[in-house]
């Protein structure tokens, strides 16, 4: 019997130790939770603004969180950052449920699935918590509004202008996309085709092919080589995907082809290919949005929703002081509302050195 | 009355109550109490209402633990259950969206689970030389693969008319409906494993399959029934999980099999078979769930929560060994 008693004691201490340990661990590793427990204890009345990223350890998400935290704290609120266990909607449900229990004032979520969070987010809204999304939206019923990094139109327009500018206004060009089912990429490509068809300015540009690299480096490389071989007069390859644009830029730079590359890419991956036209670099400039600004926009939305400046209805306006813009909420294509951050940000030889260390 | 082999042979168990309290299940009750008290002390929001509100998602996973315990008791394993949840949930949503009445959709989900379970069971029974880990690894990939093909490019489906799912996801007062179902199912599984022939047969197979076979236990039948039950309860999990998400996607149910196995093993059910009690699995499930909810409310990093659960799990497996070694050393010292 003694051994049973022993195991019982051991176990109780184990559980107690684990709990005590994690309490300490939580507050040292995560500044968010530390400040949360402090404010709970003192009941300082600070409002709590939560953000739920897609997953932990995603550098792009980290930048969004950084921007979000900066604005919330500058406005006297408390930012609660709660990472899901893995990049699934299931894990986000757990985290959001927990935030509802804690009684936060607002939740901003970068959703891993458009629909799966509906039940839990409706639950949150019914308890008076203000719900918005950033980066990747949930369906119209599950949110009050959405901080959209880039409207389809804005991205397509920027890419069309880039192709026009780099090619000199005429000639062959091709698109290197992700997979043929990728929602974002397909929307941008359709919009680009629409813009080019509607404006006679682009009449001399000839889209020869839309190739699919499936967001795999090897396949994107193969597809780029095939494009260069099949269309010797190709002037521009436009790749609206970070994997594709890096692969294409590498192939073009390595082979010394005259073709140029542009698209949507990560500055850190693209830095070695971006350069002035005569430098032998394959990419004159490319675009992406600024995740820090997106986090800031999301923070301003949360603040405005909580203090009642906006309700999330189309036509509401609010000021994002640090971004220097007064935003207006607009109707989104899915029937809900959204706030568009602005035109995508241009990375060129002048600013790439500064940005390549950021993300 | 120690026999020659050193084993105690007792026709009438003595000190029944003392034995019960000092068993692993008794320890689990103590741990559960410690967890509840500590979580309550740490977090002001750890109220009965909040804990029950956060629980349905975990309760759905508990449906998996029950038959998983049966399979583990036989020394087998099933790691395809997460994929069955995904496939069943996907088909359910497709059925609802195709305009079928909700009960029909439920039947389709249950049917999917039964068929998947039967496929697992049939392969394992027909090819006894294949380890169940490998068979169910194969079906894990196949079942999720089918769901992924059906879901197509978007990788996600939402039930357009979620009224049915909403209804079964409701609560009676503050207690979710699924809570009652888990308790009822748990009670049935406890009775089967302790009071019925089937439960004894499971243990016999897990202790020594050959002996069980020569003693007249229909090993293949018991195996097959267990895997079909596993499939059916995976479907049940899918139903109540869909009631929380109103949809399915390619990651639905990912990792559920490991959660279910962890609950069972922490409950003292040996993965090598022949050991453990159903009630232990149920208690440990509540320990893990209550702990996770408590830590979650303190905003403890999810990865840290996993770490703690992992430590608890290894501790639970090690403890019997350590105490056995200590008592063995003591005996040596005495003799």
TrEMBL record, chain A:
First and last residue of the signal peptide: 1-20
Main location: other
Gene Ontology CC, one term: outer membrane-bounded periplasmic space
All residue ranges annotated as the Periplasmic binding protein domain in the record: 50-308
Subcellular locations according to the entry: Cell envelope
Keyword tags: Signal
Bias kind Low complexity: ranges: 28-39
Name listed for the protein in its UniProt record: Rhamnose ABC transporter substrate-binding protein
Naturally occurring in which organism (per UniProt): Agathobacter ruminis
Top-level taxonomy: Bacteria, Bacillati, Bacillota, Clostridia, Lachnospirales
TrEMBL record, chain B:
Subcellular localization: Cell membrane
Membrane-protein topology: Multi-pass membrane protein
Alphabetized GO MF terms: transmembrane transporter activity
InterPro entries in the cross-refs: ABC_transp_permease
Transmembrane segments: 21-43, 63-92, 104-127, 133-151, 172-192, 224-248, 278-295, 301-322
CDD domains xrefs: TM_PBP1_transp_AraH_like
UniProt keyword terms in alphabetical order: Cell inner membrane, Cell membrane, Membrane, Transmembrane, Transmembrane helix, Transport
GO cellular component, one term: plasma membrane
Descriptive protein name: Autoinducer 2 import system permease protein LsrD
Organism: Agathobacter ruminis
Lineage of producing organism: Bacteria, Bacillati, Bacillota, Clostridia, Lachnospirales
